[in-house]
């Protein structure tokens, strides 16, 4: 995949708070774009319809086939869809899948990407992109893939299934833990603040998604997680979960629930409990916590070797750390 190692550090224009989706046309106008392709994640058709009504004639097409792990051939279809309708921008609506496809469209055609996140992954705030090929995951990081504008409307979480809130929220928790466990000082303040917010709000939100204050807090926590991940880059659990997810068609949040407690043992969790509490936290969300049961055919050595050979991870993938993490999680 094309790209570079630079990360876009400046915060994009933001519409935030209940009802902020209504500000989307103003954000689009500020970018100076006239035609938008909507990239819609699973279960996000009602939100996409609202976006279509708000954008009116600016909306020139919809790609609704976004699935987990961004298969390369489907990402190419999304790019072709944008070319066919002569879009000069791309709007990603949903969670990590929609953000992933929208990043590829933005990168391939050099279009501004507008993010309308409707889960808690925080993926919309990173410039890192990934696709799944026959050889596994491939990716990189480029300012061209970064969001040029973001709508962070907590009302969009109201109809999201509890399992999606739990899984996407655990992805954000995992990002925070990995930043705090990592060697870099970049993103640590955001990670600590995001982890506190998600720790306080996510379990209650899964039980009561109608509570507005919980949606607001969880949205802010997920955004901080995304900013922390953008600043620090992915850690061992993130890389292992991405590879396992693509190879075994498994949910990223569920994999992070199995792996993150091992990282929590190494992290400065800003006063929050460590590995055992992270295990209990994930279990309370209804997520799996046993990697061996979730993925019984894992060949740890082969997986780590595969990651170590990826050119896009040069300098990021530490084989020893990943192998230790996997063996601890598989015990």
From TrEMBL:
For this protein, the record's InterPro entries field holds:
ADH_Fe/GldA (IPR001670), Alcohol_dehydrogenase_Fe (IPR039697)
Domain of life from the UniProt record: Bacteria
Annotated Alcohol dehydrogenase iron-type/glycerol dehydrogenase GldA domain residues: 16-154
GO MF term list:
alcohol dehydrogenase (NAD+) activity; maleylacetate reductase activity; metal ion binding
One Pfam annotation reads Fe-ADH
Cite the EC number: 1.3.1.32
The UniProt annotation puts the region (Disordered) at: 1-22
Tell me which Gene3D superfamilies the record gives.
3.40.50.1970, Dehydroquinate synthase-like - alpha domain (1.20.1090.10)
Q: What is this protein called?
A: Maleylacetate reductase
Biological source species: Pseudonocardia dioxanivorans (strain ATCC 55486 / DSM 44775 / JCM 13855 / CB1190)
